[in-house]
């Protein structure tokens, strides 16, 4: 889209009249251009934190040869990033300023499309790691929902005070209202069963929620 906004004339604003009168672009032209920029930012935000982790998952750390290859992968990864930055800063920027903005955007667009094709072509060979643990954000949400229900309902079920809780240094005494929903699950698992997990929570869930709550109270206003 960014390449099209620079290459297609109907997406350009009207030409300037003389040196001072430059008509504004149409609302559609403005929308198309800024949507392109926001899509780039959205794609980068989803791409950068995921691809490195996905690449690391392709190597078995228990295998000596693959463990060595994993280290080599990150070396080549950062080499590619730095090389791409150098080329885009030196060559692509020169093309944009002196040749054409459409060509300047078209070159990285073509490279991106080629890289995407190579990535998709290897789909059948990738390793996929299946996570067995529960979503940690779901466990945190259960603590605060259970605490809210505790404040609204009288008969909430078994509550805390168990000796099995791991004490959280510094923040444990600050958020005692979360202790009311603490219970050790009878199954002996880390989390309570799905039927009661939104009414009572395990000591580990409460401890994690206190940690997040305490950290946000310390650094939230500064952020």
UniProtKB/TrEMBL annotation:
GO CC entries: membrane
Pfam family, one: PTR2
Keyword set, alphabetical order: Membrane, Signal, Transmembrane, Transmembrane helix
Cited Gene3D superfamilies: MFS general substrate transporter like domains (1.20.1250.20)
Annotated TM spans: 28-45, 76-95, 101-122
Membrane protein topology class: Multi-pass membrane protein
Transmembrane helix found in the keyword field: yes
The organism's place on the tree of life at top rank: Eukaryota
Signal peptide: 1-18
InterPro entries xref list: MFS_trans_sf, POT_fam
Compartments where found: Membrane
One of the record's GO molecular function terms: transmembrane transporter activity
Family designation: Belongs to the major facilitator superfamily. Proton-dependent oligopeptide transporter (POT/PTR) (TC 2.A.17) family.
Name of the molecule in the record: Protein NRT1/ PTR FAMILY 5.10-like
Taxonomic source organism: Aristolochia fimbriata (White veined hardy Dutchman's pipe vine)
